[in-house]
Amino acid sequence: MNICEEVKNAAAIGISGHLRPDGDCVGAVMGLYLYLKKACPMADVQVMLEKPADIFHCIKDVEEIHTDFCTNIEVFDVFIVLDSDKTRIGDAEKYFDRAKKTINIDHHISNAGSGMVNYIEPSASSASELVYKVMEDKSLIDEEIARALYIGMIHDTGVFQYSNTSPETLRIAAQLIGYGFDFSRLIDETFYEKTYVQNQILGRALLESILFMDGRCVVSMIDKKTMNFYQAEPGDLEGIVSQLRNTKGVECAIFMYQIESMKYKVSLRSNGKVDVAKVAAFFGGGGHVRAAGATMQGTFHDIANNLAAQIELQL
Ligand code: AMP
Ligand code: MN
Ligand code: MN
To answer: Which ligand 1 atom is nearest residue 267's CA?
Structure first.
C-alpha cells in the first residue's frame, strides 16, 4: 500500500487508533499524522484519539490530538484506523462510519479488516512497522516521524525482545535510528522508567499473584479500591503482565484490573505453548498469539476459572 495514493485528493483526513492507546498505537497514529501533514499540505489532517500517557508527550504535535473526539468536520474524505479494527476506537467510530473512504492498517490476527481498504499483516511486529512501509516517499520521513514510529516498535516488541521481532523489524529500526534521535534515552524514558507509584502497584500485583496449574499459569488482579488508593490510571499497570510472564516455569500469565463492579480488563501473555489470542477471542477479545486481551464480566474468581478452563485445553 502507498498511503499517499490512497488519500490522493482528500481534503479532510481523519486518523484514529484504539482506546487506552499504547505506545504502538500512539507512535503509529502520530507518525502517520506528521507524515500526511507533510505529504498533503493542502489537506486538513486530524487525529481523534484518547489522551496519550505523559511519557508520549515527547512526540511532536501530540497536543494537536482531538482527545475529546470533537471536530468541525462532518464527513471525512478518508478515515484511517491503526492498530485496531473500527470497533475499539470509541467515539471515533461515528466518523469512520460516515467517511467516504475508510482504511484499516493493523497487525492483529483477530482483525478481519474493517475498512474499505485494508492492510492487515499479522506477522508485522507493530502497526508502526506497517505505517513505515506505507510511507512510500521515504524522503518525507524526518527525525520526528522516525521517533514516533520507533517508540511504537519498541513498545510492541519489548525493545526487540518478543518473537514478533523479525529481520525486517530490525532493518526498519536501523533506518529509523539513522535519523539521529537519542534512542537510548527514548527507550529508558518511554519503556523502562516507572514512577514510584507504578513500581509500588507492580509490587502489590506480584506479591498477591497466585500460581496454579502446577505452576504453568500465574494470575494477579488489582481492584478499584487499590487503584484509587494509589491514584493509579490504567496506564500505570502496563508491564505488570509481562513481569508475571517472566516467572520461571510459567506458560501463561493473566493480569486483570477492575473497571467496575463485576467487570475487568484482562491481559494475557504466553511463553509460546498457549495461543492467548484464541483464549481472548473465546471471551470476545482478541490480540496476538503471545499477547492478547479482553474485557470480561464476573468476579475475579469466576473470570480466572473461566480463563483457566480455556487455557487448560491447550496445555
Ligand atoms: P493488552 O493486554 O491490553 O496489552 O493487549 C495485548 C494485545 O491484545 C494488544 O495488541 C491489544 O491491542 C490486544 N487486545 C487487547 N484487548 C483486545 C480486545 N478486546 N480486542 C482485540 N484485541 C485486544
Ligand atoms: Mn495497541
Ligand atoms: Mn500494536
So the answer is: 2
